[in-house]
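Bench notes, afternoon.
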Amino acid sequence: MTAQHRPAERQGRGPATETKLRGRLRLNAGVSFTTGSATLVLAPSLSRALGVDASGLVRLTGGALVVFAVDLVVLSRARRRHLFRGAGIVVVADALWVLATAVALATATIPVRGVVVLVATGALVAALATVQWRALRDVRADELGTGDRLEFRDQVPELT
């Protein structure tokens, strides 16, 4: 039997893909909660490392990450319809975080320690967005009953 003709469960699809998506959201929640909590506690030190005079803004970011983490846990337990829509929003939000990090690195004068913090954080968020997007892609392929992953080129009609 070729991979194309195997049942979805034997290809690692079906309910397992939804479970993987929920797990990736919980992973993001754990990372966001840990980072947000540390940011709240270490706001003055992080402000100095980033070269900003706004520990209040850093605390606000930490608090927002903690709230985001709670939202991710709730989302990871949501019904399927809400899970898929919400996971897509999370992937976009993570991508926007990475973009904002790149803009900050390109436009602001940041000490070396701050650059290290921003690059590490941006890379971690990019990795989380990627694994969540892949899990969401696999779940959507299951929803469409293709049994195969959808690639971007499969979703865009030919222009010729």
